[in-house]
Write a sequence for this structure.
């Protein structure tokens, strides 16, 4: 899950981490932007849509800073030119020029990524899609929405609300992230359990290819079995194959009734049977099943995220689970949820200690805020090494504990180094967020963590990146989850689409 | 009616089921009311009143004999009673009116409450209720009830200290620009404001920052075991006729309308365009 908008303002600017670029950048000879290029760009775009330190625009370099830096303040590019095109045509003309001139291009959405995929590595041009923010069409019968790539996820949700539809995805960064960026990174988030991944809900895309050609596949068809499904390649390609400029997406009918409950569990071992039981009893109305370990909960509460449970209710809890239901009929949903809760409490060997059922929309949000606020709490607590991994549900705790013990054995688990090792995430999707919260980013901690964590994940045949993507941060770890044949095929696809290697260079492929 | 010195306290908390405060209100096309087919929950001021009653018991222990919640409303208002029971009240009274009935007015509700109090065999020593309901914002029920019963009232309470032995209460009231402390003998009517007891030590700034979400005393979450227990607690059903009262409204709603829609701002490319827009809007430069 991506992080909250607010956290971006809080992320400390004090101790930037030194990013090693040693893991082999591609050897393409890319050119820097010069004044003639800027001259040409200003024929394509109005000057107000270009930021460049070069003449004739001559912007202060500080104004380019937000585009050159990721929100965690971990990655710093040196781009001298940022463009904010308003139409697909403008994107196409810019990219065509960059293709001919062999200038690197970084497509950028809301810049809320966690793996450095949306900021330049060197001095590539940044194409920020934020000015392409129009909704193109919405069909209230089919629920199909067609929108510009730069539309902010939350704005789309607000647009759909009066039409009784919701976006098939939701995540903490909704106030900043763009739908184009969501698709390019195949964002997961909080609704995946119910509505599936973007590989299913995206029906079509409009993409500007690395030579400037516009690929129009903005289909509004639910079914279309005519040859290779090219759009799938762009979903999760992180801007390395082209720039997504328009998205056609299937939205879901808004549920009439939502409920949530936080359950306090005496032991992690109970999570799995609880998940089975919740699935069996709630069936189609279960829309989230989120796991929070005790340390993560305590951190969220310490930093004022949501409203803490009553003291007595958290006593003796090793971890917590947030279950959400959403459905079409309140009485039906509540009867199911109450049935589940009653059976849980009255069982001979209860899986839960106790729990809290929200009694109003306000409490519903307060309970969610605990879960969604963990990312922000972590950034307030210290510097976080974030691992977003897919592993079998049963091994969530084992992975967190093993990592903690490993750090202890390396002598970095103490005040002043690693303060907390926490786990939380989407149980329903087998996705664990393993966060190591440290006093500061240091080489010693990084060496203790990597490749240790990746090897641990590989041992469980898991994925080193469940939903955050590869970006710049994890190119060196790709091989833990993809074999040589797969990576080789990826390279061949990349060079087919982008023979000059101008598209988001240095990202995804090692 | 006045309790004898030896008797323990009986607390009555009237609550109302209202549209949840987080729901966006939509006016019906006939402009006579609002869309009620939305999420409802307990009036937040009443939630604070329930929490205050439960905290009084936590503080006074056995000196509080009972906490009873009462509501006047349609069948679904029973859910609001269950929520209050899950928070710690002992039993409920539901003065039920049909779904089709118009919303009762404060005087009708106050008369119903008086009738309920007079029927209570053990008597009532303290009535704690929200200072207003967030749906009609009338803010009169507590005062009218005090008038009908000829009891003292302490309105807009931000702190309540009850001396069970002396049968009196000290109540701090929120008044314009400050606080006022009053003392009254029981039985007493208290209406609750947005702040209370537990927050006194915190800074003013904190209160301003949090006054929306962390109200008066932060009503507790209903825990699952308590929700289950609440299902078994008794709720007595009554009709207005049982109480010998008439809830027919005396006031007719003529028109309900939404506030004017806020028009979004626009961006201009240059100073000239800005000046042109300002002139268009009828704004002219001040003559020197």
């Amino acid at each position: 899950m991506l992080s909250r908008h607010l956290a971006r303002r809080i992320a400390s600017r004090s101790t930037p981490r030194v990013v090693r670029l040693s893991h082999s950048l591609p050897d393409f000879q890319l050119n820097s932007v010069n004044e003639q290029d800027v001259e040409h760009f200003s024929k394509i775009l109005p000057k107000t849509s270009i930021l460049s330190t070069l003449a004739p625009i001559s912007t202060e370099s500080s104004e380019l800073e937000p585009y050159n830096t990721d929100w965690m303040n971990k990655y710093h590019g040196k781009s001298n030119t940022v463009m904010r095109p308003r139409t697909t045509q403008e994107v196409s003309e810019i990219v065509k020029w960059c293709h001919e001139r062999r200038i690197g291009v970084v497509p950028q959405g809301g810049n809320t990524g966690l793996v450095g995929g949306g900021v330049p590595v060197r001095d590539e041009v940044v194409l920020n899609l934020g000015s392409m923010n129009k909704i193109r069409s919405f069909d209230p019968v089919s629920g199909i929405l067609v929108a510009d790539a730069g539309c902010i996820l939350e704005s789309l949700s607000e647009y759909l609300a009066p039409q009784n539809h919701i976006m098939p995805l939701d995540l903490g960064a909704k106030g900043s992230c763009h739908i184009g960026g969501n698709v390019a990174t195949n964002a997961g988030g909080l609704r995946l359990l119910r509505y599936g991944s973007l590989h299913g809900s995206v029906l079509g895309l409009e993409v500007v290819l690395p030579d400037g050609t516009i690929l129009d596949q903005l289909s509004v068809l639910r079914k279309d079995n005519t040859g290779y499904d090219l759009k799938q390649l762009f979903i999760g390609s992180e801007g390395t194959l082209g720039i997504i400029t328009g998205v056609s997406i299937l939205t879901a009918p808004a549920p009439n009734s939502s409920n949530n409950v936080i359950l306090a569990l005496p032991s992690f071992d109970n999570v799995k049977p609880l998940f089975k039981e919740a699935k069996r009893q709630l069936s189609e109305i279960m829309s989230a099943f989120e796991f929070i370990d005790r340390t993560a909960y305590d951190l969220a509460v310490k930093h004022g995220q949501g409203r803490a449970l009553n003291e007595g209710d958290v006593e003796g809890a090793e971890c917590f689970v947030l279950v959400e239901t959403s459905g079409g009929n309140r009485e039906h949903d509540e009867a199911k949820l109450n049935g589940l809760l009653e059976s849980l409490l009255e069982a001979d060997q209860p899986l839960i200690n106790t729990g809290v059922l929200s009694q109003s929309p306000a409490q519903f949000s307060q309970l969610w805020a605990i879960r969604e606020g963990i990312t922000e709490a972590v950034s307030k607590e210290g510097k976080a090494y974030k691992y977003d991994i897919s592993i079998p549900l049963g091994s969530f705790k084992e992975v967190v504990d093993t990592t903690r013990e490993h750090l202890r054995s390396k002598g970095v688990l103490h005040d002043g180094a690693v303060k907390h090792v926490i786990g939380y995430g989407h149980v329903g999707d087998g996705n664990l967020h393993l966060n190591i919260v440290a006093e500061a980013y240091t080489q010693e901690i990084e060496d203790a963590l990597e490749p240790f964590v990746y090897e641990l994940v590989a041992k469980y045949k898991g994925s080193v990146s469940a939903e955050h993507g590869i970006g710049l941060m994890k190119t060196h770890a790709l091989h833990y989850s993809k074999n040589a044949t797969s990576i080789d095929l990826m390279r061949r696809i990349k060079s087919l689409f982008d023979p000059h290697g101008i598209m988001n260079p240095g990202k995804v492929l090692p | 009616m006045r309790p004898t010195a030896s008797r323990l306290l009986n607390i009555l908390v009237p609550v109302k089921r209202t549209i949840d405060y987080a729901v966006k209100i939509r006016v019906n096309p006939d402009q006579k009311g609002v869309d009620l087919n939305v999420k409802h929950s307990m009036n937040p001021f009443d939630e604070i009143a329930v929490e205050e009653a439960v905290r009084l018991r936590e503080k006074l222990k056995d000196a509080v004999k009972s906490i009873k919640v009462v509501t006047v409303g349609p069948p679904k208002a029973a859910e609001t009673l269950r929520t209050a029971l899950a928070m710690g009240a002992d039993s409920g009274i539901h003065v039920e009116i049909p779904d089709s009935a118009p919303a009762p007015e404060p005087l009708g509700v106050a008369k119903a409450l008086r009738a309920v109090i007079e029927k209570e065999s053990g008597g009532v020593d303290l009535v704690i209720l929200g200072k207003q309901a967030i749906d009609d914002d009338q803010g009169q029920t507590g005062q009218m009830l005090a008038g009908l019963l000829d009891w003292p009232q302490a309105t807009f309470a931000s702190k309540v200290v009850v001396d069970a032995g002396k049968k009196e209460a000290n109540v701090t009231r929120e008044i314009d620009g400050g606080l006022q402390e009053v003392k009254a003998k029981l039985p007493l009517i208290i209406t609750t404001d947005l702040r209370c007891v537990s927050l006194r030590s915190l800074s003013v700034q904190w209160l301003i920052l949090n006054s929306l979400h962390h109200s008066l005393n932060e009503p507790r979450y209903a825990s699952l075991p308590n929700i289950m227990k609440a299902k078994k607690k008794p709720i007595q059903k009554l009709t207005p006729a049982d109480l010998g009262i008439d809830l027919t409204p005396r006031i007719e709603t003529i028109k309900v309308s939404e506030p004017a829609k806020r028009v979004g701002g626009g961006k201009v490319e240059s100073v000239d365009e800005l000046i042109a827009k300002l002139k268009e809007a009828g704004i002219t430069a001040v003559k020197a």
